């Protein structure tokens, strides 16, 4: 536990970490606690766990990964915007595709940073977001700008980008080899709801069968992790 702040010093800003990799949380904790004006107040590896802790701890900022244990970072950001609008959110992610950043920002995040960024840029991003500014990795920002300049035709060029946040979550889980019932349990929805999402995804990808959908989801996941 950190020592109490001197009455003559401003209160340290509280940071909450949400990531399903213990090593990442440990690295961030060590980095952040070295800063004179920041301290980690708690951590979680899933959305539901994070929501409960954040409501109790009331941090100034939450650093959130997109892919969490049995949950979605995007959905967590949406929930935080509703329940804890005073908590700023910075996404720290492995996903380089700009459509993830667009979804995170629409959901309520104030920043989107790649995990391969330097420690200096991570700290700078935290300070910018706490100050009410946006902070986006240069490569991601360039991709978003290119889409904006090219217009709607480019933005809707990939079927993945046409998926809703929930449809994308189902698509990712299919790519992990999860079955319909497993996906329903993860998302806490009915099997029929998952089947409806799958039907809409098939339509957007112009696929004829569930087998083709799973094959496409697996291929997409392999491309992103290659």
The average pLDDT score comes to: 87
Order of strands side by side in the largest beta sheet?
2-1-3-6-7-8
Helical segment count: 11
Task: Summarize the amount of helix as a percent range.
Answer: 40-55%
Q: Give the beta-strand count.
A: 8
Rg over CA atoms, rounded to whole Å, is 19 Å
* Shape type: globular
Spatial gap, N to C terminus: 40 Å
Helix and strand pattern = EHEHEEEHEHEHEHHHHHH
By secondary-structure content and strand pairing, the structural class works out as: alpha/beta
Runs in which pLDDT lies below 50 for 5 or more consecutive residues are none
Share in β-strands: 5-15%
For the largest beta-sheet, the strand count, sense and barrel status come to: 6 strands, parallel
Please supply descriptive tags for the structure shown above.
226 residues, alpha/beta, 6-stranded parallel β-sheet, 11 helices, globular
């Amino acid at each position: 536990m950190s020592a109490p702040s001197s009455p003559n010093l401003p209160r340290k800003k509280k940071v909450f970490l949400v990531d399903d990799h213990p090593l990442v949380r440990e690295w961030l904790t060590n980095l952040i606690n070295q800063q004179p004006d920041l301290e980690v107040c708690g951590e979680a590896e899933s959305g539901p766990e994070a929501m409960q802790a954040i409501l109790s701890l009331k941090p100034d900022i939450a650093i959130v990964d997109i892919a969490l244990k049995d949950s979605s970072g995007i959905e967590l950001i949406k929930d935080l915007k509703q329940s804890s609008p005073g908590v700023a959110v910075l996404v720290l992610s492995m996903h380089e595709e700009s459509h993830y950043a667009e979804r995170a920002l629409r959901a309520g995040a104030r920043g989107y940073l790649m995990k391969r960024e330097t420690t200096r840029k991570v700290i700078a991003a935290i300070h910018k977001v706490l100050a009410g500014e946006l902070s986006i990795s240069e490569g991601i920002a360039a991709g978003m700008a290119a889409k904006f300049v090219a217009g709607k035709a480019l933005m809707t060029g990939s079927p993945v980008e046409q998926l809703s946040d929930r449809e994308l979550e189902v698509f990712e889980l299919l790519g992990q080899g999860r079955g319909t019932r497993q996906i329903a349990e993860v998302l806490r929805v009915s099997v029929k709801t998952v089947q409806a999402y799958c039907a809409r995804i098939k339509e957007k990808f112009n696929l004829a069968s569930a087998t083709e959908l799973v094959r496409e989801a697996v291929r997409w996941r392999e491309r992103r992790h290659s």
